[in-house]
């Protein structure tokens, strides 16, 4: 990549367009992990086993959703290219077909996930005490999968049309509603961990309805039919296959991390659940620049502006580094108090603090990785992203399986696991940076062959 920091680090001609998309996207993205942390804090009042069950079930649900992330990312890239080329109606047509594909995939996720729930919980190493909590949360929350996938597809359409404000409103409203309902169902109505799951179903359903209404209005204005087309569904599924492989490899990393943490003990998986959500909060915040990159790069390449693409990419990488440095400092500042809202268990608190040191140190590297991932995704370079993800997964797995075994206790075992996770982030940064230095990804036009 070109040099990371320019002579004027806080002034650049691309900053306005970057932050017009990145700022609302930032607040939309952090709303999810913030309210997931709220769920963790509420469920944590039920005990260490309930919190561990939330962590195990959460990883299963994230896997079901993450393998369908192309509904958001692939749609953003496709729609933004057509937007840059002046074909707004074509972009909305792609988006409508993406919504229908989301419904089909959501129904399939329920049909597959419900009977296989006990097996998936067991594969993640949940103890007999944690497993019932995990299965209860998993089976209820599965009902929200179609709604969540509709939200993902709808988000991709609107961001491709350079609208980041509507996704912000939907995210804040739905996750705020989820947090309120979680408190009421769990603490007031005493529904236990099931109350947290039902609050998710209701909140995601409301968000999905909002997106369907917004895109329906845009489709009517553009003269686009709301009926699905067989060709559109095939094109959406085909374009998303490479991103599917990418997502699968990334979820393997997350699942192996969770499984290893679970096998280190109940305290370790409970601490890992909190640390992972804090890491996700920080990464989602930096991912705002990456998602802005998807929209901006797609629009520039759709308009045939290679020079603008390179300049905007360089600037977004600079912001990724700077935000990562800021978050590193913030984590160290809050480190003594970070475990307090989640648990009163002294051992779990010590594990959370130890792993957050590693989380803090990886932040600048994470910033570069997230931004470059978004840039190449916006360029439609999904095939490279798929192969790179498989190679980086191969670098991670031996480290995750070996490093914790070298530790003499659960504390150093969990720290070792997070060091292995950092190796994965580093491998991603290297492969993405090598690609961005070249020109093979700079393909122009309304569609990418």
Automatic annotation (TrEMBL):
Pfam hit, one: MatE
Residue ranges of the TM segments: 18-36, 56-79, 99-117, 137-161, 168-189, 195-213, 276-298, 319-338, 350-372, 384-404, 410-427
Membrane topology: Multi-pass membrane protein
Ribonucleoprotein is among the record's keywords: no
Subcellular localization(s) per the UniProt record: Cell membrane
Record keywords: Cell membrane, Membrane, Transmembrane, Transmembrane helix, Transport
Primary location recorded for the protein, binned into one broad class: membrane
UniProt similarity note: Belongs to the multi antimicrobial extrusion (MATE) (TC 2.A.66.1) family.
NCBIfam families: matE
Protein name per Swiss-Prot or TrEMBL: MATE family efflux transporter
Originating species: Nocardiopsis tropica
